[in-house]
């Protein structure tokens, strides 16, 4: 497992449907080491800090393996590293294998998996297509976020070394299915209850799932 491309970008103004939008989704590959800090990477910023960035969304990770899918889905479009807004374009980190709470060492820094990425309309701005958000979510190829648990230097081609794996936990793919499911099975309910024991999962997600549990089983909570 490795970082194929390390991508950074600062917020910029773009015109979309007659309105000026400020977005940090435009990321481009950079050379040389970059310092990973608690809230972001040096040289990288998010525009709307109410929904992007912060300690639990410091680094956005997307798999290079997904690019082949999108090349078929979006023929004729150039798909350069970072086009999905990711900081790390990675090899070997798939949503079906990575668990909430898994920890990795990259360069001299360490990272913890916190949550999947839920796309906002700015992905549509980046691709100049209003239906891109729907396509992205439907693909289940959403990527995920890292928290920086140890600050340090990272660079393209750094090896991604597993430190701890929450193998009995919830994968990013399973988490996303729980979020998208209109109705939960009994097995889903058991999986949701596991989420409350994960210190790396942000509290807003725990509040979301607790509210859904209360709606589904008000008498048992």
Which homologous superfamily in CATH is the superfamily of the largest domain? Answer: PK beta-barrel domain-like
Order of helices and strands: EEEEEEHEEEHHEEEHHH
Q: How confident overall, as mean pLDDT? A: 91
Total separate domains: 2
Which architecture of the largest domain per CATH?
A: Beta Barrel
Description:
- The protein has 221 residues and is an alpha+beta fold.
- 25% of the residues lie in helices and 26% in strands.
- The chain has helices at 66-73, 121-127, 132-139, 172-180, 186-195, 203-216, and strands at residues 2-8, 12-16, 19-23, 28-29, 34-36, 59-63, 88-91, 103-106, 109-116, 144-150, 152-154, 160-164.
- The longest helix has 14 residues, at 203-216.
Summarize the structure.
The protein is of the alpha+beta class. It contains six helices and twelve strands.
In terms of topology, how is this protein built?
Elements: E1 2-8, E2 12-16, E3 19-23, E4 28-29, E5 34-36, E6 59-63, H1 66-73, E7 88-91, E8 103-106, E9 109-116, H2 121-127, H3 132-139, E10 144-150, E11 152-154, E12 160-164, H4 172-180, H5 186-195, H6 203-216
Parallel strand pairs: 6-7
Antiparallel strand pairs: 1-4, 1-7, 2-3, 5-11, 6-10, 8-9, 8-12, 9-10
List keywords for this structure.
M1 Pyruvate Kinase, Domain 3; alpha+beta; 25% helix; 221 residues; 8-stranded mixed sheet
